[in-house]
Predict the structure.
Amino acid sequence: MFNVPSAVIYSPDEFEAVNRVTIDSRDVKKNSLFIAIKGERFDGHNFVLEAIKNGAIAVVISEKKLADFDEVNVPIVTVKDTTRALGDLAKIWRKKLNAKVVAITGSSGKTTVKDMLADLLSEKFSVSKTNNNNNNHIGVPLTILNTNEKHQILVAELGTNHFGEIPYTSGIISPDYALITNIGSSHLRFLKNKKGVWKEKSSLLDETIKNKGKLFINYDDPLIRNYKVKKDSAIKYSIKSQTNVYGKIKKYTDDGRPVIELIRNGKKILMELPLYGEQSAKSFVAAAAVALELGISKTNLLNGLKKLKMPAGRMNVIKLKNSVLIDDTYNANPESTKVAIELLGKIKTYKRKILFLGDMLELGKPEIILHEKLARTINKVRIDEVYTIGTRMKHLSQKLNRKDIILKHFNNRKSLIIGIRNMDLQQSVIMVKGSRSMHMEDFLKEIKQKVN
């Protein structure tokens, strides 16, 4: 198990088999292995003794820290880099797993597709999946290590905001199947532009092809569509074109839920999604394409459909007493914000449409232009009231110049909270969206209290 570079085991005769690997001392259970990771806010080495007290039977530490643990009475493994060792251990365990591995990345929608796919597959298989969005260089190895021999399928989410992260995590997880949801203007501060985003994320496809795996190609995305791959190594899916899996949107219900006709191998399934907007339809068709390829039946698909729900803060439609509130506060980039605004326009429960927007972050040099571009979508959808916060959203506010729109920019959080308390939000469809660090969920709470 510890055949990793630079590893040295102290008290190897006392080393016992472990059944759990964790980096959180609070998460330690009996027979756990604790790996001390040094992060931005905490150093796991400060919690080694607590981990042992909680039941860890072995610990992995930096070789530089060995002298600090002379009195530890469980086996110690020293390595040069504990984070790298975590990845090395996961790579070893991955080779021992019998589970088929599906890896998912993309600029937006990857958590939604991951959760949808896991729900659909669980109708027939034992499924392991990424918890929440633990999709980075630490979360991906932990996801692998939390998968056991009883699991038949692992659905893993891979995220990135710097070059090199997807090549690293995809090399560890060694996918049998891979899917990129889309290529958008996310993390441009580090990935520069869409071509940079594509370069980073397409490494997942490269790794999968190297493993003789199968790709699921979003034919509606021009960058993904043009990826060169042998016909028998890829399945194309779309909501706009007749591809291998085609999810044609027939209509929307009055409350914004898509009714789609799913066509695969000439067979059609008509279904009304329990979720909202075009993006939900895209995510479902992606998940269905993978699930059907892996062997679930029409009955499995329809039963799994009933269980689907959006992850917290992602297009959650909340029906209040006299209003509808759309919680899309988890994060924001230009593409996901555009889709969210379009959903606001599709819901016909109430005619009055109110939009609260916070800054979209990590967009690099084009951030002002990307904020201003949202004005086109807002004008097209005919939003009645727009309230913005953040230095970047101020530029959008200035760009909106319709005479029939109620518009106000708030310079700080306190003034927006006071503003919400004085607004009339009854008989309206209300959306709240912004990047994670804008903490737009705080304003969501104020709106709920005001409307209820």
